[in-house]
Design a protein that fits this description.
Blueprint lengths: L11 H23 L3 H11 L8 E5 L5 H10 L2 E6 L2 H13 L6 E5 L12 E7 L8 H10 L1 E12 L7 H21 L2 H12 L5 H9 L3 E8 L4 E7 L4
Parallel strand pairs: 1-2, 1-4, 2-3, 4-5
Antiparallel strand pairs: 5-7, 6-7
Helix pairs in contact: 1-4, 1-6, 2-3, 6-7
Amino acid sequence: MTVKPYTSEGSKKTQVAGMFNNIAPKYDFLNHFLSMGIDKIWRKRAINLFKGMKEPLILDVATGTGDLALEAQRRLGCKVVGVDISTEMLKVAEEKIKKRQLTESISVQEGDSENLPFEDNTFDAVMVAFGVRNFENLNKGLTDMARTLKEGGKMVVLEFSKPAYFPFKQLYLFYFRYILPWLGGIISKDKAAYTYLPESVLSFPDGQRFDEELVKAGMTPVKRYNQTMGIATIYLSEKKAQ
């Protein structure tokens, strides 16, 4: 069964866009507050996997408020194109980009991960942080990301996963299922959004199963990097020459 943010009718894609439009003003604060700032470290580690690439052109799918795109530009000095289905999240991203005077290096636009508005073999690298579990059709989204990637290009996916070891697993799941939705709901005024978060993570095919999804999409998995005892995972894959 597809996990959606709200119980009302409508596609997952439409509901996800509406959810992020609702929480956009509080999104960055809640991201850093609820993760105790660890999410910033994960993003840096994800970007470090692109080191050694010379001035890559990077596509940032589900760019949201632009944190991953900004980190990539800061660490690599590269150009980044960000796409997202939430107009309100993009407004926040645009404000950050202008404030840092990076409009020549980073651009963002509204776009659907399953129907990206780019030609085949356009980008040297593609990345997404905390976005793939929100795809309505995971295979279609990953396949379209791979399509826009040049042969030999890298794909980096940072996504939440499920810890496996006692007792951290039990403590984390209690926080994730009960404390996080309560706090997130109070601050964002959208409890459903932060109830959807743990539900979407728990139903997501993480670990080896996600590597199998990458293979189906035409990518070759290289390595998985577990973060903070399995709370998140960074997946590195490449598009091999056909």
